[in-house]
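Hmm, what's this shape?
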Amino acid sequence: MLKRLFPIATLLVSIYLFFWPVAVEPVAWQPEKDLGLIGDFAANNGLKNLRYISFSPAHGAEDLAVNSKGEIFTGTHDGWIHRLTKDHSGEWLAEQWLNTGGRPLGLEFDAADNLLVADALVGLVRITPDKEQTILLAEIDGKTIGFLDDLDILSDGRIIFSDASSKFPARDFGGTVDASRYDINEHGGHGAVYLFDPSSGEVNLLADQLEFANGIAISQDENWVLVNETGRYRVLKIGIALDNFAEQQTVIDNLPGFPDNIARATDGSFWVGLVSPRNKLLDLTAPYPLVRKVSQRLPQFLQPQPERYGHLINISAQGQVLLSLQETSKEFGFITGAVDVDGELILSSLLETSIGVMPLSDL
C-alpha cells in the first residue's frame, strides 16, 4: 500500500512545489561575493556594554526620533508610539504615548516639534505635541502608497520618504517583516523615493526601481538624500538640489548585511543598522528565479531566515567606514539603526522587545 502511495505523494508534492500559485515572480541577478566580517567589518564586541530599555511584550522599536526637549520616540509592531524621558537619576523611562492604528516605522520631528510618522499601514502621518493626528499623504496619483517605510525632513518643511515596495504592501502580505521577505526574494525593483511638499500637496518622484528602498537620511548640506537599498546591500545617495536633482551615486555597496535604517549623527556622519547578516542561500540562488520561486512555496521555517546578530556601522557621507560595532553574544540583534543623544548611543531593533543604550565614550 505504501509503495503505491509513495509515487502519488511524490507527484503531488512536485506539482505543488512547481505549479502552486505564489505572489512572487523572481528576477535573476548576481550579487557581489559576500566577503563577510573582514577588513572594516571585522568581528568585534563593540556593543558589549549595551544596557536595555524594555517594551515587553511589545517588540520591534524600528526607528528613533528626538524632539527639542531631548525626549526619544519610537514605534512598535502593535501600533504604539512610545516616549522615553529621563528620570532624576538619568535613566530612561518608557511610556506608551499614542497608537497610530497601524505600524509606525520611520519617525522624524519637524521644526514645530510635530512628529512625522511613516506608517506602513496608515500613510504619512503628522502628530502634534498635543497628540492631534493628521494623515498628510496616503495615495499618489490615486493609488495607495504600498509600503511607506522611512522619511526625513528638509529645513523648508518638505519631506523625503521611501516606498519600500509598491508590489508587496505590508497590509496585504502579513505585515512589514513578511512583506519585506516577499519583495527581497522577488528582487523586482518595486521600491521608490519621493519628495513631498505638505504645504502644496505636490509629490515628485526622486528614484524608482529600487530593491526595497528603506532608510532615508538627508545630508547636512541638504544637497543629497542617502537611501538604504536593502535588497542590494548598499547605500545610495540621490541629488535633491537644483543642480543634481534625482542624480544617483553609490555611497557604499557589498555590505556584509542588510542595511535597514540610516540616520545622520550629530557630527554629520551616518548611523546604519545592518539588520541581519547576508544569507548564503539567498545569494547562491540569486541567479536562479525558478529556485527562488519554488522556495517561496516551502513552509516559512524552511525559507531563508534573518539571523539574530547585532551590527551597527557609522559611515561618512563619502562612504568611508568610521565604526563597525557588533554584539557577538547575540543578546541584542536585528539592529535597524541608531541615534546619538547627549553623549549616549541609542539603538533600535526590528524584532527585539527592547532598545539598547550605551555611552558614546565606550566607542
